[in-house]
Structures are given as C-alpha cells and as structure tokens.
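I hope you will forgive my troubling you with a question about protein structure. I am sending you one protein, given as its amino acid sequence and as whole-number tokens for its backbone shapes. Thank you for your consideration; the sequence and its tokens are set out here:
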Amino acid sequence: MTATPKAQKTNMQMNRWYALLILVFVLVLIYFLFFQSFIAEHALLNEELIDLEQNRQEYTELVSLIPELQKRINTVKETVGDNTSFLVADSYNLGTAELTRILKSIVAKNTDTASECQTVSNTPSKDRDPDQFEKIILKVRMRCQFEKMINVLVDTENHVPHLFIDNLHLEQRTIRRSRRNTTPAKPMLEVRFDLYAYMNKPVKKKDNDKK
C-alpha cells in the first residue's frame, strides 16, 4: 500500500524534528564534554585573578604604610630604648641578683687581686619614686685604689644593659705602715653610691596616681 503525499510530508517533517533533536543532543553533549570544563576553568582563573588583584592592592597599601610605621618604631625606640638597655630579669629578686652579678664582674675585670678593690657591701633598696619602668637599686660601699675605682666607674657607666650611678661619695682612707722602709701602700678610697638599672617592666600606676 502506497502512502499518500500528505502522509509522506508528515513523515518528512517528523524526520526533520528527530534530526534536529539529535543535533541539539549532540551539541549539548559536546558542550558538557568540552566547553563546560573550559568555561569552568576560565571562571576559576578569573576568580584567582580577582583575588591576586585584591592582594596586590592590599600589599601596595601596606608598602605605603612602611615609612610611617618605621617612623613610629624609631620614635618608640628613642622614648623607651632598645631591649638591650634593660636587665634580662623580670622580677625584683632576679633583677637584684643580676645587678649584683654584673657589679662583681666589672670589679673582677678591673682588678688583679681582691685587695686592689673590693665590695664591702651592696644592699638592695626599694624604689621610693617609681618612674616609667621598674628599677633595681643597690646601695654599694666599696674600698678601692684610686685608679681601680676610676676604671670600675667608667666601665659601669658604659655597660650594656645600662647602669646608672647616683649619690656618689668619695673619701680617702689613710693607711698606716707597720714597718719602716716598706713599699708605700697606694691610697685607698672609701666609695659609696647607689647603683641602679631598669627591668623591661612598665610601672603599674595605682588609681590614686591617676587622679
């Protein structure tokens, strides 16, 4: 039985639609197989580029702040001082022990025998007038030959961490010779002074001081 022209036309139209649907399906399949991954990767690259640009801007802003930050750091250093200016200790007892040890090392460095310069006493003393940082104070009494004492004082002033001397009192001590024709003894000095240094611990102001 032969199909009528109308039926043949209908079949041709359906075949075209089938072919069109197959073509669309193939295109969609190709898109997902090839272009989708490319587009996703491209989108990811765009996000990375945006992040890099933001990081670059933040870095540029930070770089522009470096000179100002350096000025502030220098100002703080000038005001507070470097950490090497302070004792290593972070408590009163440790600070007292450290300052005593430093004094002994300075005296030992500048003397050959104990008779040339000796520390008679070094008594810890509380800071009655707290300043910006906690202070360790020793009330020192020494008996030394003049030259040795000068060397000790000079090394003390130039020491790091920084040491400070206050209330310095010098008094010459007369030495009597027990026998004649003996080598004259070098004059000795009785020396009293306050030796102090700072710990890197800001003083906590009391409420009464703030008012």
Observations:
- The chain has a mean pLDDT of 79.
- The domain at 85-202 is CATH 3.30.70.60 (Alpha-Beta Plaits).
- The longest strand covers residues 188-202.
- Residues 5-80 form the longest helix (76 residues).
